[in-house]
Amino acid sequence: MIDDDEAVRESLAFLLLAAGHAARTHASADEFLAILDGVERGCIITDIRMPGMDGLALVGRLQKCATALPVIVITGHADVPLAVQAMKAGARDFIEKPFDDHTILGAVASALQCGDENGAERTRVHVIRQRIDALTAREQQVLHGLVDGQSNKVIARELGISPRTIEIYRANLMTKMDARSLSELVRMTLAATERPR
Q1: Do residues 126 and 197 make contact, with C-beta atoms less than 8 angstroms apart?
Q2: What is the pTM of this model?
């Protein structure tokens, strides 16, 4: 929870702790960013208006850091346009003040579920990238040909080897990448190459 108002921080932290969540509070975005590297999971709740770096700028900074932590922005009625900007910049949700306990706890539960799903997907993509990196240079060339939709004959011609050799490489790729079908192999490879490292 990031808010320059100590009473708001303490109240929200108490609510989250009472609901069974761990909670850490920070008086400013800069204070939170100083410990960001040590945060592996959870969600961020930030006020949109704070001295120094505001909530909108924080969302932008988190996007540049490529953090997958979901962000909930708390906003006053007059700040709704800013909150919408924050959503467009990557915030998961915004909640208008005054809000009730049920609303904020529901938003946190939804954000944590989203964060867990994103974390699982990041882990899966990381494993796929490790498998791709472990392939030989020739296997990677064959993989790229398959992903580009080329037939064994076309890949063989481009690489100057026989189609039978391509079939062997293809079988090795399926084993090394742990893919059950060509379509799964292509989907896995695309997922790993479309996401930023």
Answers
A1: no
A2: 0.60
* Burial class of residue 31 in the structure, from the number of CB atoms within 10 Å of its CB (0-12 exposed, 13-18 middle, 19+ buried): middle
| DSSP symbol at 37 | G
Tell me the C-alpha to C-alpha distance, in Å, between residue 178 and each of 131, 147, 156, 174: 9, 16, 23, 6
What tokens were used for 21?
Answer: 């969540």
- Residues constituting the chain: 197
Nearest to 146, CA basis, from 115, 187, 175, 117? 187
Tell me which residue of 92, 79, 105, 84 sits closest to 16, measured CA to CA: 105
pLDDT of 140-196, one tens digit each?
999 999 888 888 899 999 999 999 999 999 999 999 999 887 777 888 888 787 644
CA atoms in the 13 A half-sphere facing the CB of 122: 14
Q: Is 192 exposed, middle or buried (0-12, 13-18, 19+ CB in 10 A)?
A: buried
